[in-house]
Amino acid sequence: MKVLVIGLGGVTNGGKTTLAKKLKNMLPNCDIISQDDFFKPESEVETDERGFKLYDVLDALYMDEMVTSIHNWTKSRASSGVVTEEPQNTCDNLKSVYILIVEGFLLYNYENTYVFLCSTRVYQPADTPGYFDGHVWPMYLKYKNELEENERMRV
């Protein structure tokens, strides 16, 4: 069997998980690893001068553990610890391919991925007033700009 790893990245609350779940329901032999499952405990996440917990930075995540999970999945899908379910619909031409969807908001800034989502979605439910505008969006733009300046990436 062939292995295909697809990365979905973009702004927090931009639809990555929703898209990943929809793809999983359509694709055979498909699993998801979500960056959200690798957040450090709140006590280990830094706070900025305004009192915001800085979740939208790589230091808020156990990225080495996430990468290890991805490598474990690619080496031995059955023993990776990733839970799989049968898809609702299948694409016959993909039945001989194992597919892993890796989704998260800072994938491009740690490892190579393939899809970048831009969103116009209204952030609901809202966090503490000013958090999205003061932290989430500026971090998204910062890392997006880094990607656009990286000649290896096509955004």
UniProtKB/TrEMBL annotation:
It comes from the Eukaryota. SUPFAM superfamilies: P-loop containing nucleoside triphosphate hydrolases. GO terms for molecular function: kinase activity. Gene3D superfamilies: P-loop containing nucleotide triphosphate hydrolases. Coiled coil: none annotated. InterPro entries: P-loop_NTPase. This is NRK1 kinase. Keywords: Kinase, Transferase. PANTHER family: URIDINE KINASE. It comes from Irena cyanogastra (Philippine fairy-bluebird).
